[in-house]
Amino acid sequence: MEGVLVMRQASSNKLLKRIFYHWQLYAMLVIPIVYIIIFAYWPMYGAQIAFRQFMPRLGIWDSPWVGMDNFMRFFNSHQFRRVIVNTFVLSAYGLVAGFPLPIILALGLNVIQRKYFRKTVQMVTYIPHFISVVVIVGMIFQLFNPILGIYGNAWRALFDTRPPNLLGSPSAFRHIFVWSGIWQGVGWGSIIYFAALSGIDVQLHEAAIADGASRFKRIIHIDIPGIMPTAVILLILSCGNIMSVGFEKVFLMQNELNRSASEVISTYTYRVAFVGGTDFSLASAVGLFNSVVGLVLIIIVNTIAKRVGETSLW
After folding, report:
1. Where in the chain is the domain with CATH 1.10.3720.10?
2. Which CATH architecture has domain 59-308?
3. 159-171 tens-digit pLDDT
4. For 199-244, what is each residue's pLDDT tens digit?
5. Average model confidence (pLDDT) for the chain?
6. I want to staple 106 with a disulfide (CB 3.0 to 4.6 A). Which of 31, 144, 152, 193 is the partner?
7. Angle in degrees, 0-180, between the axes of helices 80-98 and 170-198, rounded to the nearest 10
8. Helix 170-198 / helix 100-111 crossing angle, nearest 10 deg
């Protein structure tokens, strides 16, 4: 027992000496640690609102405890099925359609030999990422406006009839939302894959060329296996966020005509808390439920990835 205590004391002394001699590096950790405490851990204090009938005049601690009642209200709500289905469909659609495209773009850019052409393509595909969501939605409205937009004018020129209102169509909402998001993020998403490709040993390609391998075979047998660990990690993280659809874009594109397909957890939480009432307890319960589902999904996907291959988050 005394030996264990001596070892622990020696280890702590080494740590203190390391901190003393490299205090500048440890000082740089103060800001991110404080940020995480303030914006990640401190808000957990308010998560108990989900288990209370929150009354602002009483505060969090003095509001009556109701246990799982707020969760049961959400589960028994007529909105529950629609909100969950819409959230899952939008996220899954975006994941299935959008996840492979940054990989394909990075592989394509890696093949291009002309430096200036490659840089131009990268710049053109990266730029949409820096456009704000409000501007993107404004562009969508201008493009798909059935009266004044490019879509409306082209439809009338081709068919000489009044075009359908895609902005008010529940089925069209999903396609417009997902593919506009893919257009905005595909270039930015390819950066990490392009970086992974640049880290592949050049000698592998040289040996493959010496053996007579074509460019396509080198992509299949060298490039794709080289970026696969990166792709698996990003896929696990994406699956963990599959129940989280961004609020701003959905809310800006939402209207009474497409609400049956556009009402997701984030917009439903906003309406419960701020529109037509101030039921903060129910909104908090919905948000906590969403977070728990995301945690369970990321654990399941990570476990599957760990059993199938060697790459996982932990």
Report:
1. 59-308
2. Orthogonal Bundle (1.10)
3. 888 899 998 899 8
4. 888 898 889 888 888 888 999 989 999 998 888 888 888 887 888 8
5. 87
6. 193
7. 40
8. 40
